[in-house]
Structures are given as structure tokens and as C-alpha cells.
């Protein structure tokens, strides 16, 4: 289905730069909380992007003042008598829907324009790279609400910031500003809000211009904390690097470097 025919609620899918898809959480009145409609739209949009070979980088951001304020807690509180099994079944489906972005083979970038809280932070953690606008707030205050962390927080956060920082953030539930997030390694760069999205899209465009096969294999190599040990890493690289050495893109990359021009990679 062409993306202009995709019917999305509380979510926008745009193609602002060459090879770049932009997903914007669009429920600003609820600080982009993950509504049922947004969740269904998210799954449909990720399916669309996974099937589109012209997409080489994906950016996720939020409309308005927040990135994402997290899951819709109203339905949790509205079912005080629900059985554990009922809630578990619903939670697993919710988690898997939002974490589906992890199955995209192209690099993904979270453009954290404002508050990224709880499951909203986990969505940013599920992306490969995180950039923040100054003034953004990030945190996983699950324990302050009386609940265990969800949306793979106890896996993704240690993976990004290390075990010590993850324990401190998850057990205190405190929210950090963009500057501290940068020091913790939670985000890689901070930009001023007025230039923020344009800066991120420019970076995404540069990522999209890299060789697609090399990019996908590199993302796969780094997945979930990377290789078990150096020997496993060497065996992987001794297979994956020759795969890229046999591509037309490799010849183009070397030619472009010699001719001092940008390469034009085709994914072949």
C-alpha cells in the first residue's frame, strides 16, 4: 500500500528527505500518550516501512511539547478487578506492538523533542540512536506509580547506559534533563529546539546515504549488546566484511573516495 493511502490515527508518516522516513507521534493534547489508535497505527506504519526498500533511515519524534508521555495508564487504573492473566496478555501485545520498530533493518533515530517518560523513554531506547532537544526530560518513573517497569525497560536501559546508571534510574524513578541524559549516554547529542528536527533529519539523510548492505549488517552486528566475545566477533566480521567487499557499492565507495566526491550507493 502506498504510504499516502495508509490511514493513521494519532500518528503521521512522512518522507522529508531522500531515503528518510519520519514518524511523528501526533496526540499532543495527551502529550503523545500511546492511545489504542496510535498503537494500531504504529504497527501499520512499521509494517509499511519494513516492506519499503527505498527507506534507508527512520526518525521518530513527537508533535508539540512532548516526545511521548508513555502508556495510556487510564485503562490500567480502570480495571482494578482484572485478572493478572488478562493484564499480562494485554501488556505483552502492547509491548510487542511498540517494540516492533526493532525489527526494521535500517538505522532508527529517536528525535526526543520533549518529555520521554516511561514507555515513551523505552520507545526512544528501542531506536538505534537518540538525540535530544535542550529542555527535554527523560525518565522511567514506573516505581513511583506503583508498578514494575515495562516495555523492556529493564533490558533496554542497561543496554544503553550500563547497569549502574540503569539501576539508579529505575530504582529511584527520577527524571533527568537533556544535559544529564547526555552525560549518562542516554542521548548522543543535544540541539536547540528551533533547529532540532532539521539537525536530526540532516543526520538521518547522511545515514541514509551510506551503503545499505553495510549499514544493515553493522546494525545486526551491534544488536542487543553485540557479540558474546572477541572470537565470535571475528568470525562474524570475517563473513560480513567479505559480503560487503563483493558489492558494487564497495567499488563505488572507493571510486568516490579517490575522486573526492560523495558516493552514490545503490544497495547492490
From TrEMBL:
<dbReference type="InterPro" id="IPR029045">
    <property type="entry name" value="ClpP/crotonase-like_dom_sf"/>
</dbReference>
<dbReference type="InterPro" id="IPR014748">
    <property type="entry name" value="Enoyl-CoA_hydra_C"/>
</dbReference>
<dbReference type="Pfam" id="PF00378">
    <property type="entry name" value="ECH_1"/>
</dbReference>
<keyword id="KW-0456">Lyase</keyword>
<protein>
    <submittedName>
        <fullName>Enoyl-CoA hydratase-related protein</fullName>
    </submittedName>
</protein>
<dbReference type="InterPro" id="IPR001753">
    <property type="entry name" value="Enoyl-CoA_hydra/iso"/>
</dbReference>
<dbReference type="InterPro" id="IPR018376">
    <property type="entry name" value="Enoyl-CoA_hyd/isom_CS"/>
</dbReference>
<comment type="similarity">
    <text>Belongs to the enoyl-CoA hydratase/isomerase family.</text>
</comment>
Amino acid at each position: 500500500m502506498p504510504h499516502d493511502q495508509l490511514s493513521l490515527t494519532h500518528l503521521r508518516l512522512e518522507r522529508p528527505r531522500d531515503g528518510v522516513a519520519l514518524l511523528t507521534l501526533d496526540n499532543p493534547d495527551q502529550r503523545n500518550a500511546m492511545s489504542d489508535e496510535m498503537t494500531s497505527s504504529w504497527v501499520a506504519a512499521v509494517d509499511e516501512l519494513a516492506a519499503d526498500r527505498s527507506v534507508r533511515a527512520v526518525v521518530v519524534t513527537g508533535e508539540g511539547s512532548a516526545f511521548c508521555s508513555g502508556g495510556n495508564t487510564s485503562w490500567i487504573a480502570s480495571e482494578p478487578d482484572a485478572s493478572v492473566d488478562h493484564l499480562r496478555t494485554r501488556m505483552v501485545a502492547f509491548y510487542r506492538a511498540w517494540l516492533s520498530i526493532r525489527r526494521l533493518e535500517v538505522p532508527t533515530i529517536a528525535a526526543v523533542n520533549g518529555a520521554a517518560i516511561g514507555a515513551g523513554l523505552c520507545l526512544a531506547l528501542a531506536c538505534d540512536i537518540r538525540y535530544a532537544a535542550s529542555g527535554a526530560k527523560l525518565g522511567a518513573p514506573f516505581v513511583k506509580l506503583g508498578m514494575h517497569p515495562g516495555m523492556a525497560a529493564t533490558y533496554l536501559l542497561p543496554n544503553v547506559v550500563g547497569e549502574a546508571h540503569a539501576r539508579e534510574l529505575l530504582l529511584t524513578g527520577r527524571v533527568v534533563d537533556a544535559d544529564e541524559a547526555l552525560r549518562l549516554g542516554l542521548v548522543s547529542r543535544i540541539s536547540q529546539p528551533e533547529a532540532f528536527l532539521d539537525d536530526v533529519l540532516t543526520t538521518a539523510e547522511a545515514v541514509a546515504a551510506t551503503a545499505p548492505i553495510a549499514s544493515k549488517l553493522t546494525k545486526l552486528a551491534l544488536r542487543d549488546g553485540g557479540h558474546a566475545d572477541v572470537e565470535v566477533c571475528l568470525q562474524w566480521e570475517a563473513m560480513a566484511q567479505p559480503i560487503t567487499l563483493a558489492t558494487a557499492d564497495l567499488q563505488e565507495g572507493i571510486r568516490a573516495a579517490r575522486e573526492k566526491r560523495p558516493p552514490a550507493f545503490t544497495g547492490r
